[in-house]
Design a protein that fits this description.
4-stranded antiparallel beta sheet, NADH Oxidase, homodimer, globular, 194 residues, alpha+beta
């Protein structure tokens, strides 16, 4: 797919078919992420690709337990508030039951950690689109990365002691069938020319 | 250009020809940035596109003055240390004398500000590559965004009171002639499969 088409037609997908994503497509997506630039060319982003349904269920359950113990204040970010409220109600699955979740981690306290992971995640969103897959940026594990139950579970999956989560990507075939490629309106994101 | 080719062949360019970048190419690059995803679809990234050589020179001079007053400690990030030391020596131009600089700003204190701008910057790096232009992520204005002389100057350029810089992109034709498209080695960025 042409680069500009991939950029213009990417959308966030939040309803997925249960069908697994073929390993060779996930490899292409992850490789697109690995090739993203990094500050000082540090290449310190770790990719944890999770397809094991039991692991995905564990993560959803542990995250729900953590969110359910939190309280939303009047200035809590909308998505975080939604995660807290949905977890208190029960049955909250932060990764939208996607068949694959790619967690990006990077060095704790490193000033370029989030930016580097974001570039990798953007490359992976574009790659998923070009491969007719849907994807959605997932912030919940980043919000919970210093919660012991999440941190310990991710350590067992391969996250190093000196790393924390900077974002994740849910990937799968969209439940709506073929990707909708009509470009979205973007009335925001203003531009100033000097 | 094919998406995967654009991703695999993107490199950072740090030596630029003085030739201006045609406005229509800058518009394509900025539009690629505007179409990047944003948390909650907030679309609150502001793009300030600077081609005015006097403005670029002002920014370089003001930034040099700020860095020259800073001291690098033993744990100062390498690139920031370089900026400080080069500014103390004098003649430091943080934007590599590129003919165009695209500053991305977003809401102060907003949890998705940096991630949203990083996605936009990654799209713009890929777009520049596809258009045979070189680019390089620039962190210096982010590091200085709470320094009054930088903040006040950027306000005059169009950055709003409630915004700060989350990153920038130097854009121009690479001094080395046609883009080198041999993929770079990426031995880092490890992957774990679960």
């Amino acid at each position: 797919m042409d680069l500009f088409e991939a950029i213009a037609t990417r959308r966030s997908t939040r309803r997925f078919l249960p069908d697994p994503v073929p390993r060779e497509l996930l490899e292409k997506i992850v490789e697109a992420g690995r090739l993203a630039p990094s500050g000082g060319n540090n290449q310190s982003t770790r990719f944890i690709v999770i397809q094991d349904r039991a692991v995905l269920a564990d993560l959803a359950r542990i995250a729900e337990g953590e969110f359910a113990r939190m309280e939303a204040g009047h200035d809590t970010y909308k998505s975080l508030r939604n995660s807290i409220e949905a977890s208190k109600r029960g049955g909250y699955v932060f990764h939208y039951d996607a068949p694959a979740l790619i967690v990006t981690a990077n060095k704790k306290g490193y000033g370029n950690a989030l930016a580097d992971c974001a570039c990798a995640l953007e490359n992976m969103m574009l790659a998923a689109n070009a491969l007719d897959l849907g994807s959605c940026w997932i912030n919940q594990l980043r919000w919970l990365t210093d919660h012991a139950p999440i941190e310990e579970y991710l350590r067992r999956l391969g996250m190093a002691e000196d790393e924390w989560v900077c974002g994740a990507l849910a990937v799968g075939y969209g439940a709506g069938g073929a990707p909708v490629r009509a470009p979205l309106a973007h009335p925001g994101n203003p531009v100033v020319w000097r």
